[in-house]
Amino acid sequence: MFNPEELIEPVDIDISREGFTLILFNDSYHDFDEVIEQVIKATGYNYDKAEEITLEAHNKGKAAVLTGELDICLKAQSVLEEINLRTSLEVSV
Fold this sequence. Notes:
- This protein is an alpha+beta fold.
- It has a domain at 31-93.
- It is 40% helix and 19% strand.
- The chain has helices at 32-43, 47-60, 70-80, and strands at residues 20-25, 62-68, 87-91.
- The chain has a 3-stranded antiparallel sheet.
């Protein structure tokens, strides 16, 4: 029989290291310029880099926005999510 407690095991994650990647998913609700501007606002990237990320998310379904420490990724994630862009954080173990 299925026991959900078996699936939930605590994992120790070293949040001080640079092992986090912020992912941006494709979005059909915002236009390209709006997403590009939000990526610039979240990361400080120039227009060309932000456009590259936006196009990759559009064409491949998702794109890595940045990799770094957890707090940096969380700050950028919160800016992207200000306009309800869908994001996630991946952890390198």
